[in-house]
Amino acid sequence: MPDVFLTARITAKPGHEAEVEAAFRALLEPTHAEDGCLRYALHRVAGSPGQLLFVEHWASREALDAHLSTDHLVNVGRVTEGLLTGPVELTFLEPVPGGDAALGSI
């Protein structure tokens, strides 16, 4: 099974930035403990208040699918309902090999 790479962009409605960030930050610890989680890193988008971006690397699509059905991920949807400008935007990535493999991939 090939590894799965993706980003997940979250945009908070104005006035709810801190609340949304706290809710998604709470996903880090339980997600890092999941089987197949190779990277799950949360970042603020510089210059874009209220925008967060996860950079994710999963061992397989099955590991990602299992993550998507965890209680903590389902719960964050409930906690942030009405606080986001729209749905979480997933972008799946395909690595482009070249150069130093350790430096050229996430």
Can you tell me about this structure?
The protein has a 4-stranded antiparallel beta sheet. The mean pLDDT is 95. With 106 residues, the protein is α+β, with helices and mostly antiparallel strands. Helices cover 29% and strands 27% of the residues. A hairpin with a 6-residue loop joins β2 (37-44) and β3.
Care to give the gist of this entry?
With about 110 residues, the chain is α+β, with helices and mostly antiparallel strands. It contains four helices and four strands. The chain has a four-stranded antiparallel beta sheet with strand order 2-3-1-4.
- Biggest beta sheet attributes: 4 strands, antiparallel
Helix content: 25-40%
The overall strand count is 4
Gyration radius over CA: 14 Å
Structural class: alpha+beta
Strand content: 25-35%
Give the uncertain stretches in residue-range form: none
Distance between the termini: 17 Å
Q: What is the topology, as strand order, of the major beta sheet?
A: 2-3-1-4
Q: How would you spell out the order of helices and strands?
A: EHHEEHHE
Query: What is the average per-residue confidence, as pLDDT, rounded to a whole number?
Result: 95
The tally of helices reads 4
Shape: globular
List keywords for this structure.
106 residues; alpha+beta; four-stranded antiparallel beta sheet; 29% helix
Sequence-ordered SSE layout with sheet pairings:
Layout: E1 4-11, H1 17-25, H2 28-32, E2 37-44, E3 51-58, H3 61-68, H4 71-79, E4 89-93
Antiparallel strand pairs: 1-3, 1-4, 2-3
